[in-house]
Amino acid sequence: MLIFVENSGNMKYPIGIQSFEKIIENDYVYVDKTDLIYSMVKGGTIYFLSRPRRFGKSLLVSTLKNYFLGRKELFKGLAIDVLEKDWLTYPVFHIDFNGSDFQEKGTLEKVIEEYISTWEVAYGILPNPDRDRGMRFIQVLKEAHVRAGRRAVVLIDEYDKPMLDVLDTQLETVVDGNKMLLEERNRNVLKGFYSVFKAADEHLQFVLLTGVTKFSQVSVFSGFNQPEDISMSGQFESLCGITQEELESYFAEPIAAMAESYRCDVPTMERLLKAQYDGYHFSPRMQDVYNPFSLLNAFKSGRIDDYWFQSGTPTYLIRLLRHTKENLNELTGRYYAPREFVDYKADVEKPLPMIYQSGYLTIKDYKLDRNTFLLDFPNNEVKNGFLTMVASDYLRPKSRVNAWVQDSVDALQDGDPEKFRRLLTSFLSSIPYTMRRKENEREKERYFHYTFFLLLRLVSVYTMYTEKEQSGGRVDCIMETDNYVYIFEFKLDGTADEALRQIEEKGYALPYLADKRKLYRIGVSFSSETGTVEEWKLEPSE
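The structure corresponding to this sequence follows.
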């Protein structure tokens, strides 16, 4: 594999640049994935690839476009330059749904119409807006096949954006005098458009659809040949993103520069980058994949920050989470069969597939004997950003969540549990009564567990955090810093003594008997009436 740089000491990072041609011609950094691209184009015809936003899907599409246009000069020195012998030129039809707001009525129809009418003009076909768009596209593909003497290539980028934009918005439109949900309308339009791939099979050399989500059982793909879904293929796991090997081979200089800036050694900086941006796995092979957008932004700016999460807000996920009967603590840290998270089945009560495919959860373990996958947050960037957003929406506190987290981490790292008690009490008191008011005991319990899951997982971004599975939930936790260990047991409408007794009975402290760090056993009781700390008892180690 190769990497293109302006010079060894001044890398140019293609942040926001999705054009393969521009990257190559202007000497931006390019990690060579063309060996995988060659395997893909030679091994199949119709593909579907799901990856989170800003993971390089558009660059992949652009690379394929230039390959099928036979632009050999752009690939000089890359892996495919050796592999490909023929470099044939094909008619290429590139559809990009980025850049349009599909919440506007009629936008999807206009975008598709513009593409088709432009192609019709290019191939000397008289445009007929009254004719079915799918049939018109078939005619274009047929004409392109005849004129070029080779079958057509169709590349569709962000195929699902017209549906994600309107998902669960309840926006309406009028079709033939009848009201209908815009979500349903956009789905029907895409269904009709995508149906061409089955009817035009003889005219197609290669098809790739990319997107964030794989919509299943919503009739989008019912009309065309089922694409080969490579989203969880071990062979193509690193097709988008940056692997650990690529990071170490190609980015040694910016890592060293960041280490110097942060006044730490290179191994420490590598660990920080890994904790912040790594952790994605897309197949049972469990190959580590870094978020390329955040990583390149970190190298360019010379600092670690939440670049990916700041670049867009997953509002559609927040909408779904408001509907669901499941909380995040009930979704994360569990093993699932692929059918439970791979396909989105248009069920607002089951947001897990959307959360996974959008990149906010990833595979953390795989059990071969059961064919089940453990799902959890990929890294600190995602965990911090997503949990902060969810906590702010769910709890509606008067206090700023991020500020509370930073103060709490400082207290724990300084060995000041009393300060943490005050912070926790104050934060819980800032949550409006209307948010914590629950009708029955079960809902009170769920609210209690979920509140502490959100708060403690946020603190865990900067500390070590261990959950203890119990029949009553996952509230018990252990927080670890460099110098301190905190073992918490929380009780709702119980006593602090009961909580401390449970720590002892369950043996939570036993793994730390030989640990040189100071250990605190903390029993906490909370009142469902006041919504805050009722009792707090602490037992430090000798």
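The two ends are 56 Å apart (CA to CA).
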